């Protein structure tokens, strides 16, 4: 008998077909239906939903969960591990398109692309613009990348090779390849904040990175600097950011993620011309979202077969010997 799997996000047709070759697939579209279907499921696949230990209490047969995302802050990983549930994610396939999103935020914020496009649309373009609407250069400036993982390194490549930028970074470990190929320099967070023209947050959300950037950190940035966040909203203390933008502590912000998503329409951030706000589109291209769904489906099929060796968040569940 094929194992029962619950999908809680719409999947491309070819991915559904692939899954159906290996599993019995149930598709649901809300948290309550997911929780109910987990009662006799062995696997689950989806994204963008907080999965609580309580939801798993009624899932005694569950063995594998495949999230269609690189981030796994929607899960209590130690709890999954205790229950013997393997968690797989989708790194690599989204690295380049997510780095493109970060760079589009850098360019849009620096060159005031959204603000000026709205200005043209509103019929304000009567003569050539003056200095009050000029932007600031990106090429040749200093980028500070907080967290040099896969996406951070792809961003460093764009910055150094495409835009001749000086690259500073913070990371738990040095990144010799980025240092050799992009001239990246590992510095303390304080140095990065003090020297970068663009501070780009590329860390996962963990208890250590929650509110990593608050009032004190924003105050250490240059007044001309721009904060870019396409990692997770809670990495920034949003109230402090709003205050810093109001006070002119920093020049602006390019944001793809927020403390509460969807961002409420009455957020003060949306009234600020020096803020570019996107609806968490990091990896949202047709090609990449398809690749992520396929990767997640492959991960799940292999995890249920006990053969998954890559993309595992808690490898000790499937390969206890190797993880010790
Ligand atoms: C990811 O893959 O983690 C993206 O941010 C979507 O949540």
Automatic annotation (TrEMBL):
It catalyses: glycolate + NADP(+) = glyoxylate + NADPH + H(+); (R)-glycerate + NAD(+) = 3-hydroxypyruvate + NADH + H(+); (R)-glycerate + NADP(+) = 3-hydroxypyruvate + NADPH + H(+). Belongs to the D-isomer specific 2-hydroxyacid dehydrogenase family. GhrB subfamily. It comes from the Bacteria. Residues 5-314 form the D-isomer specific 2-hydroxyacid dehydrogenase catalytic domain. This is Glyoxylate/hydroxypyruvate reductase B. Keywords: Oxidoreductase. It is an enzyme of class 1 (oxidoreductase). One of its GO terms (cellular component) is cytosol. One of its GO terms (molecular function) is NAD binding. PROSITE patterns: D_2_HYDROXYACID_DH_1 (PS00065), D_2_HYDROXYACID_DH_3 (PS00671). Its EC number is 1.1.1.79, 1.1.1.81.
């Amino acid at each position: 008998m094929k194992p029962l799997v619950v999908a809680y996000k719409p999947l491309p047709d070819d991915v559904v077909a692939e899954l159906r070759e290996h599993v019995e697939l149930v598709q649901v579209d809300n948290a309550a239906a997911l929780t109910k279907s987990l009662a006799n499921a062995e696997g689950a696949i989806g994204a963008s939903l907080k999965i609580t230990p309580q939801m798993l209490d009624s899932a005694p047969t569950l063995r594998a969960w495949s999230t269609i995302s690189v981030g796994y802050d929607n899960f209590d990983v130690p709890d999954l591990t205790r229950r013997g549930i393997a968690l797989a994610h989708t790194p690599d396939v989204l690295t380049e398109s997510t780095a493109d999103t970060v760079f589009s935020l850098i360019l849009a914020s620096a060159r005031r692309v959204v603000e000026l496009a709205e200005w043209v649309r509103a019929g304000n373009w009567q003569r050539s613009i003056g200095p009050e609407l000029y932007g600031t250069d990106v090429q040749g400036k200093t980028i500070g990348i907080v967290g040099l993982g896969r996406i951070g390194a792809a961003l460093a490549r764009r910055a150094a090779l495409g835009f001749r930028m000086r690259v500073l970074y913070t990371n738990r470990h040095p990144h010799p390849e980025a240092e050799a190929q992009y001239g990246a320099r590992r510095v303390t967070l304080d140095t990065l904040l003090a020297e970068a023209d663009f501070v780009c947050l590329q860390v996962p959300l963990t208890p250590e990175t929650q509110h990593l950037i608050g009032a004190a950190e924003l105050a250490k940035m240059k007044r001309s600097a721009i904060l870019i966040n396409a990692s997770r909203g809670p990495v920034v203390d949003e109230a402090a950011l709003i205050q810093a933008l109001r006070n002119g502590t920093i020049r602006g912000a390019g944001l793809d993620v927020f403390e509460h998503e969807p961002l409420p329409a009455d957020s003060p951030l949306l009234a600020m011309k020096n803020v570019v706000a996107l609806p968490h589109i990091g990896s949202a291209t047709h090609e990449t979202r398809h690749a992520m769904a396929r990767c997640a489906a492959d991960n799940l099929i292999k995890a249920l077969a006990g053969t998954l060796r890559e993309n595992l968040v808690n490898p000790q569940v499937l390969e206890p010997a190797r993880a010790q």
